[in-house]
């Protein structure tokens, strides 16, 4: 029973005029402000029946839930708005409070920081203190002297920030691919003044595609090391979740993690599982994940992803939704081919450089390993090492590995999946290339057939 005469009068007016949305909204807000939380929840629900997509009413209902410790209900109410770019920052703070109530401190801190960076007026010092994060500021982006790395508690769903110890010198061959990555991703950060003169910002997306094991992940790590940037390697388990809405939240949190650690290389492996063609999907929530991915690539504002270099890799680029190839997203496709003979020899040198060796003829091994990718060559070297280890154990001393050891291992090793991939790629190049997307593959396919 309300003991406030003004609230009783408002409630009676709302009873007599049940379809008066401004009146119901005002009543609900007054109830919330004076601490009548259960009554406020009832009135916000009634107002939402009249305006189901009203963000302010939804935020009020979520606040009523949070203050009643119904954190799961609050997140469910907010989720449809949080999944879209440009949601009201107040909702982000409410989501942070609900996530903290659920014990998800890292995700709560990410959500709070993102909301307050967009609108400092919604800052909640008490909540910030509980999240142990400093009061946010919104300076223009400038690359820091050294990348700041998030603590493990900040990492969403297993995604972690690391520092790559590799660079392009550790990647054998593929000079054309490395040059494409250098121009598209690295030089805008390494020479910002020159690129700014032409209106080019630091950031963007590149989709690398090619047969399995060709070195796409290796290239992504090397790009991060070449730049001295943070590196976030995102696997499917870091994003996909069995509960509706959780996958979208994980994806958003992953992008937020990269934005806080810029300059950062954000790498999505097997991206076709997250960016598949929406026309092939039967379930609405899987299409929503694609929509969320597109929204994150665009950013909530033009500078949101500045300094975030998004790399993705796939073995099946033809299954990716065409919207991802729009300028500003993955507008550059980079073909990562199986290594040629010179590249195979260089890969073998790198794989064997820390092992006891006799005089080696890596070119001879490269000539008999056509269709081998980097993963196949590593397996070949591992087999030769196993044989040499057995001999060394029997002899009681390390016995250097020879060219014949590698040739013998090559005779018993077959390339894994390149031939099958080539057959599939050939079908798309010859019969499904109306848009010209696979023109880059044409010369390479013709050389192999």
Could you give a quick summary of the protein structure above?
The chain is α/β, with parallel strands linked by helices. The chain contains 20 helices and 6 strands.
Tell me the CATH superfamily of the largest domain.
P-loop containing nucleotide triphosphate hydrolases
In total, how many beta strands? 6
Give average pLDDT, whole number.
81
Structural class: alpha/beta
How many separate domains? Answer: 4
Q: Compute the gyration radius: what is it?
A: 28 Å
Largest sheet: 6 strands, mixed
Termini, distance in Å?
A: 83 Å
| Sheet with the most strands: spatial strand order | 1-3-4-5-2-6
- Under the CATH scheme, the architecture of the largest domain is 3-Layer(aba) Sandwich
Order of helices and strands: HHHHHHHHEHHEHEHHEHEEHHHHHH
How large is the count of helical segments? 20
CATH class of the largest domain: Alpha Beta
Helical residues, percent: 40-55%
What do we call the CATH topology of the largest domain?
Answer: Rossmann fold
Taken from the alpha-carbon principal axes, the silhouette is elongated
The proportion of residues in beta strands is: 5-15%
In terms of per-residue confidence, which ranges show pLDDT below 50 for 5 or more consecutive residues? 133-157
How are the secondary structure elements laid out?
Blueprint lengths: L4 H12 L4 H13 L3 H14 L4 H13 L3 H12 L6 H13 L3 H14 L6 H7 L29 E3 L11 H16 L1 H6 L6 E6 L6 H12 L2 E5 L1 H4 L6 H15 L3 E5 L15 H15 L9 E7 L17 E4 L5 H12 L9 H6 L6 H22 L7 H9 L6 H14 L9 H8 L1
Parallel strand pairs: 2-5, 2-6, 3-4, 4-5
Antiparallel strand pairs: 1-3
